[in-house]
Amino acid sequence: KQEVTQIPAALSVPEGENLVLNCSFTDSAIYNLQWFRQDPGKGLTSLLLIQSSQREQTSGRLNASLDKSSGRSTLYIAASQPGDSATYLCAVRPGYGQNFVFGPGTRLSVLP
Amino acid sequence: KAGVTQTPRYLIKTRGQQVTLSCSPISGHRSVSWYQQTPGQGLQFLFEYFSETQRNKGNFPGRFSGRQFSNSRSEMNVSTLELGDSALYLCASSLGAGAGNPYEQYFGPGTRLTVT
User: Fold this and answer.
1) Of A6, A84, A95, B44, whose CA is between 20 and 30 Å from A105?
2) Which among A84, A97, A75, A81 has a CA at the least distance from the CA of A24?
């Protein structure tokens, strides 16, 4: 059974810092992995999706990497801004047509 | 293109009642998935519908059910509500099949259900 963990659970950084959020999964046989952000009381916003055959994806200041052999993905945020403050969730799809398994999230606060 | 919409946004019900939540996917998306989010359990998958058929199901009791209509809109029903059903219910839509990223999910704003 696939399990997803995220470290740290919470992170507070000053504006402008580069930061890394971590996601670990127990079964390396995955179909894809998706990173989301969630603002308090709101739905999820898709950030990046990495297929199992890919090593990384980039969008603006965000870069996500995937290392299936070690069961890890990282989300790199460059030059953080207060507007980046949110909870970041990673979700793993174990196989084609299977449902997502979500991690518990990392709550990020970027201080002005 | 309009995003995923969910109605109602907020709901207060009494224990023992039943509730129906609605989700309209992005135009052209044929898959709708439902999730329950609580502070203690995080995001948990309820079920997925694709072309009016339930394709996947999570580990929830039979009180939780759903359906999908021919226009891909989906409803979720919870019968005999319990206090523990208080949660944010999120739906997500995706293409569900085909080329590209058919399983990239787009989420709605959620329905906040409070059971008293």
Assistant:
1) A95
2) A75
